[in-house]
TrEMBL record:
One of its GO terms (biological process) is phospholipase C-activating G protein-coupled receptor signaling pathway. This is Trace amine-associated receptor 1. Gene3D superfamilies: Rhodopsin 7-helix transmembrane proteins. Its main location: membrane. InterPro entries: GPCR_Rhodpsn, GPCR_Rhodpsn_7TM, TAAR, TAAR1, TAAR_fam. Belongs to the G-protein coupled receptor 1 family. It comes from the Eukaryota. The gene is TAAR1.
Length: 336
């Protein structure tokens, strides 16, 4: 028997028809994703905040991105979980707009951070001797400010001014809108704008920059045995910069970017295509793609743990409570 989210049946959204076993499985899986996301990103934030050796420009960008991922896990995923499993929204229309805006903002903030991280790595690998002079703490704070402010203005402006409906109001209110629901809806114009702003343009910039970094790092690797190159490496190490370290960092952050693109690409492609297909993509598929995108925030700390020895050492100190010891913040996690 069909059940509804609201007592007025003819305007209500329809509840999910899944059995209790299926619902329990979905809740368990999503709660595991939420828990892993929150704990993983919290450990990244604690590590970078506590250990003074990790107070570097790149790490402050990673810290800010981990904060966005943590907030996504705390503020967005729990409500999305209930909506995805029950197909109902029990928290009111105003909170639906706040939730949708926050979701878009934090997802967009991640790719903005990754764009700036790619720029930071480009300077570190391509111009290492002048890197510290060009990428100082003020430049990093400007990057972080832009990474948060533009997605916030874009997301909250679009949802609260209802610009996402523009050009498709009749279609939305006649065929999509129902009481007790909270779906993300885009018209053709707003869908293309969201796709270009939040995904395509910054993603293309990152790919171009990482291609450049890759070819430069490859060239450095080929000439690593050359005597002149050895002299240059010695000079760089004297200035506190190691090209081999920077190449490894660039490779790691490239993998972080690849994970992001893999996770979010299906959702953004469906978002931009759906209005042109007369909204033929099933809501259940959209929900699944949103959660596939959320997995990016879950995977990022795992990438750090796998590729960064400093994070593994910091993690051990946190888990064994050694960070509460006097002077622990000055511990050397890696050789500079």
């Amino acid at each position: 028997m069909m059940s509804f989210c609201h007592n007025i049946i003819n305007i209500s959204c329809v509840k999910s028809s899944w059995s209790n076993d299926v619902r329990a499985s979905l809740y368990s899986l999503m709660m595991l994703i939420i828990f892993t996301t929150v704990v993983g990103n919290l450990l990244v934030i604690i590590s970078i905040s506590h250990f003074k050796q990790l107070h570097t420009p790149t790490n402050w960008l990673i810290h800010s991105m981990a904060t966005a991922d943590l907030l996504l896990g705390c503020l967005v995923m729990p409500y999305s979980m209930m909506r995805s499993v029950e197909h109902c929204w029990y928290f009111g229309e105003v909170f639906c707009k706040i939730h949708t805006s926050t979701d878009i903002m934090l997802s967009s903030a991640s790719i903005f951070h990754l764009s700036f991280i790619s720029i930071d790595r480009c300077y570190a690998v391509c111009d290492p001797l002048r890197y510290k002079a060009k990428i100082n703490i003020l430049v990093i704070f400007v990057m972080i400010f832009i990474s948060w402010s533009i997605p916030a203005l874009f997301a909250f402006g679009m949802i609260f001014l209802e610009l996402n409906f523009k050009g498709a109001e009749e279609m939305y209110y006649k065929h999509v809108h129902c009481v007790g629901g909270c779906s993300v809806f885009f018209s053709k114009t707003s869908g293309v704008l969201a796709f270009m702003t939040s995904f395509y343009i910054p993603g293309s910039i990152m790919l171009c920059i990482y291609c450049r970094i890759y070819f430069i790092a490859k060239g450095q690797a080929r000439s690593i045995n050359d005597a002149t190159q050895k002299l240059q490496i010695g000079l760089e190490e004297k200035n506190g910069i190691s090209r081999s370290k920077e190449r490894k960092a660039a490779k790691t952050l490239g993998i972080v970017m690849g994970v992001f693109l893999t996770c979010w690409c299906p959702f953004f492609v469906c978002t931009v295509m759906d209005p042109f297909l007369d909204y033929a993509i099933p809501p259940t598929l959209n929900d699944a793609l949103i959660w596939f995108g959320y997995l990016n925030s879950t995977f990022n700390p795992m990438v750090y743990a796998f590729f960064y020895p400093w994070f593994r050492r910091a993690l051990k100190m946190i888990l064994f409570g050694k960070i509460f010891q006097k002077g622990s913040s000055r511990c050397k996690l890696f050789l500079e």
